[in-house]
Design goal:
By secondary structure, this protein is α+β, with helices and mostly antiparallel strands. The protein is built from two helices and two strands; from the N terminus they run βααβ. Helix 1 (39-47) packs across helix 2.
Length: 82
């Protein structure tokens, strides 16, 4: 019978480190507008669908007055799962 003072020891030998290029699920990320960008170009690049520009616009209505006019240097919130 084991001694009652023995405590289980965590075994992390099978844990591997790594990194991800995507934001954690549910966490919005950001995008800094570059020269030549449009909401549809950003949506195509980020989500693979230019028609998802509406989601970016909706998430940034406080910053974007006209969805046809975005400016280099603006930092836009990219909603997850657009």
């Amino acid at each position: 019978m084991p001694d009652s003072n023995d405590k289980p020891v965590a075994d992390f030998s099978d844990v591997q480190g790594g990194s991800s290029s995507t934001a954690p699920a549910g966490q919005p990320s950001t995008y800094t507008v570059k020269s030549g960008d449009s909401l549809s170009k950003i949506a195509k690049h980020i989500y693979g669908d230019a028609n998802k520009w509406h989601a970016i616009y909706d998430a940034n209505k406080d910053k974007i007055k006209n969805p046809d006019l975005i400016h280099p240097g603006e930092v836009l919130t990219l909603p997850p799962n657009a």
